[in-house]
Amino acid sequence: MENNIRSLRSYLMQRLLISLYLLWIISTVVGYFATINYANQPYDLVLLQRANEVAAELKLGTGHEQLDVVPALPDGSDLGMPDRVLYTVTDSEGRKLAGNGNTLRPLSYRRERKGPLFSNGEREGQKTRMVSLTFPSRNGVLQLHVSETTQQRQALIRGILANIVIPELLLTLIALAVVWYGLKEGLRPLEELRHEVANRRRDDLSQLDGGKAPAEVRPLIDAVNNLLERLKQVMAAQQRFVADAAHQLRTPFAGLKTQSELALRTDAPERKQHALEHIHTSTQHGIRLVNQLLALARNEPGGQSTDSFTVLDLNQLAQECTVEWVQMALEKNIDLGYEGTSAAQSVQGDPNSLIEMLNNLIDNAVRYTPVDGHITVGVKAAAQGTELSVEDNGPGIEPQHRERVFERFYRILGTGQSGSGLGLSIVAEVAKRHGAKLKLDVGRDGIGTRISILFPVRPSSIIN
Ligand SMILES: Nc1ncnc2c1ncn2[C@@H]1O[C@H](COP(=O)(O)OP(=O)(O)OP(=O)(O)O)[C@@H](O)[C@H]1O
Ligand SMILES: [Mg+2]
């Protein structure tokens, strides 16, 4: 894994190294040609002057040439003047007429050419620079080629280049060192932060101190801190939930223990029977609570995904669920009705979760609505989807409780009913998992409770 992680420092250094290296090469090449150009200019002038002196000595261009005169030219033996100078006089065809060496005619040298021509060449392994001049003569033209070795020029070029290249190289190295050090120092707070996180206790969710970190990573640290804060809240909620669940489970178990002890101690059959009935009720409470806890776990975010979702007919599902409750409603002489649609109402969802949701809603309605009440379960097509509602004309839920009844284990005291406060939180989780909008209102004519769930039309809007 370590190999895949790219170090910011080495990445930047690599980039910088390549670009500085390229820059150095380019400036060296450009500097080299510029230097040659500037170094040649004064030497070329001297060479031309010398060629003119030779021409004067040989009287070229006067019509009275004296080609047998041998002008005195440096032969390279003088330490102050290490370059050797040679000259040749040729006719227009390039045939040598006089001279102290064989200086080849430059290829591009044309007949009747006006003005001097400078050219580069090589003789006996040494670089040479030559100037060629044309003079009129009786038999046409004469050409004078004066060539010199380039040791002095090259020494000058080397000197200038050394003064460009070496400081540039030093500058490059200094720049690299400064950047390397800057990066090391700049990233140190991050390294410290990494160290701090790595050495944390498993349960330490306190905020990271990004005070010294570079501004660029502040948003990341803030985001991590935000996440830590939320994680802390979630963990606290989980802890509270476990404590509440254990507390709730203790009641039916305690009842079981007391009643079974009572049954064991007594010989009277009717007392045994009575105790057994209590045991039965406690067991039912226990089972219901455990089932509710399981339902909550199933519908929690991060629990089951939408894999179990199918396209189902909400109208039919709600109707079937309602029928199951008719008997219970009758026992309290409650009129439990169903208002559906004639057409099927397709909804994407998990049928088991939706049944759990409906059961909890109808259970509440039947439980909290007094004798002779009315309950209506309904499914209808709405503008933004399909609406499922359970409405009763019971005592209603006071506005101050409306937000909180969807919290886990939240109950309104004084209803005289037993329960653990999980029903509506299951409803809320199921709605959330289906991307549905949950609403708690008063019932018809401002009496009772109406809870509605609006399922979205498009399955794509389902939230996990
Ligand atoms: N239809 C309703 N009419 C009046 N009050 C209601 C209705 N439904 C819920 N409530 C109130 O909201 C509270 C929370 O309901 P919820 O279903 O979450 O828990 P519960 O019914 O008390 O227990 P459980 O459903 O876990 O057995 C209830 O205690 C009750 O006071
Ligand atoms: Mg309930």
Automatic annotation (TrEMBL):
The chain crosses the membrane at residues 20-40, 160-183. Its EC number is 2.7.13.3. The keyword Transferase applies. It comes from the Bacteria. It is found in: Membrane. Residues 184-236 form the HAMP domain. Its main location: membrane. The keyword Acetylation does not apply. Gene3D superfamilies: 1.10.287.130, Histidine kinase-like ATPase, C-terminal domain. SMART domains: HATPase_c, HisKA. Keywords: Kinase, Membrane, Phosphoprotein, Transferase, Transmembrane, Transmembrane helix, Two-component regulatory system. Residues 244-459 form the Histidine kinase domain. GO terms for cellular component: plasma membrane. This is histidine kinase. It comes from Sideroxydans lithotrophicus (strain ES-1).
